[in-house]
Amino acid sequence: MAPAEGGYRLMPRDGHEVHIPAAELARAVADREGPGIRWVWADARRTYTAFLAAGIRVGRAHDLRLAHTILRGARACAASELATAPANTWDTSLQAEVGEPTLLDELASVDEPDLAELLAELDRQDAAVGSAPQPGRLRLLVTAESVGSLVATEIRHVGLPWDVAEHDRQLTALLGPRPLPGGRPAVLVDLVGQLQTLLRAPGLNPDSQPALLTALHSAGIEVKSTRQWELEEVDHPAIAVLLQYKKLARLLSANGWSWLDTWVTDGRLHPDYVPGGVVTGRWATQGSGALQLPKQIRSAVVADPGWRLVVADAAQLEPRVLAAMSGDQAMAAASRAGDMYDALVAQGVVDTRPHAKIAMLAAMYGATTGEAATLLPRLVQAYPHAMGCVARAAAEGERGGQVTTWLGRTSPVPGEWWRRTQDAAAAPDATEADTRNARRRTRDWGRFTRNFVVQGTAAEWALCWLAAIRRDLAALPQEHGRADLVYFLHDEVIVHAPEQVAEQAAAIVRNGAAEAGRLLFGDFPVVFPVDLAVVRSYAETG
Predict the structure, then answer these.
(1) What's the confidence (pLDDT) of residue 35?
(2) Is the C or the N end of the chain the one with fewer CB within 10 Å?
(3) DSSP letters of 195-238?
(4) May I ask the CATH class of domain 319-455?
(5) Measured distance CA(226)–CA(86) in Å, rounded
(6) pLDDT tens-digit map of 74-85
(7) What's the whole-model pTM score?
(8) CA torsion, points 414, 416, 419, 421, in degrees to nearest 10?
(9) Class assignment of domain 1-157?
(10) According to CATH, what is the number of the domain 164-261?
């Protein structure tokens, strides 16, 4: 399926090209949609958006651009024609830092492939997957990624229920009345005045980092940055005011009135997700802020009258994924005990739950200083397979190598900056600074690959979870309305469902988590519990 002037071009795999006028799209798709049908298109963002606007949903699809990105970089099919071919239009980057509008800009400049090229690319992708030592894993990854693109497009189309008046009430309570364009709300004006007085800096603009640092230094506050963790270590009356200002200014910038005007229409927030927008496979967004909905405004997420929100998050997902992918039976036993951090205490690995959390995060993110340094050896002794898994990934990264997730997504190679620092340290005239820089870069990349295998595999689990939820929600009775996924954040989902089927939707969400675990890890005894609530407002979940 490909867009064409005045309509769409469609070609069954074994048939002839058909031109479908835009006005006939809904009927043409409905005539063909059904079990066993898989739609193939360049990218869902273009084609499926038009389908949804025409009232059409499909069960299965294959997103060629997303799949190409995975397979092009996959170590498992590095010798395939797809991986070895020169760069082409399919190599449009789908990865973007959150908030950077590169995807739309790049896709807007890419010509839509014709049907022959779509089929040729599909053949290349099928061949690339077939060349992998474990083709089933890559095939599952590509399928899950394509389902993710359907979910992202559907969420953007349906939208998250949003009470604009409640949002405005919360902003007014926290910031004061809405200011004129370009102005600060009253509460921020007052905080700025307090800062100027406490720091003896008339005219200070705390939004200017250089000016703020200068004012802090002039007041005898010797900090290197204005990061929260560094400011919190300072004993000065201006610091509490500054931290409060930064918190509220961030709310105004990220989710204030301007954001509300831009992203919420007709009582719905329409998140602009970018599936696969991060190298690990996590989603990014194109400015909608959907990956961060602060607690101050969650009371604005309210179900429609007669509907409910099913809010769920997978408890301690990444540690559970690490236990499963490493085959660590002792850590799997901790997963079956409920709260994994409490289980670490019960097993005698650490003495307190906070220490358990510090140790586990240190293992997955590579922290080696402070409390983490004393706690990590206990995890290594208790869970040698899990800790060995992330240690090997870190070591491979430090060598400049690549690592893969459970299903085969492959980490990028270090950039030229990494090579330059290594070469400088190895040169005959290398300085001590060159050596320190190279070691730091090496450790940094090792921490990245250490986390890549865990975060990336967790992203794969989440895609399978979304796929199971989407499939089973579609099978619910729809006489009172259609239950839909309306929000996703890494390991958290929100379903908007008629109250008559809300409990069934909740069971679907819970069962989908177990199914995702079985799909990826078979019968390995790791459990993936879900913290779940059926509520009227997102704020009720705490």
Answers:
(1) 85
(2) C
(3) HHHHTT-TT--TT-HHHHHHHHHHTT---S---HHHHTT---HH
(4) mainly alpha
(5) 45
(6) 999 999 999 999
(7) 0.91
(8) -110
(9) alpha beta
(10) 1.20.1060
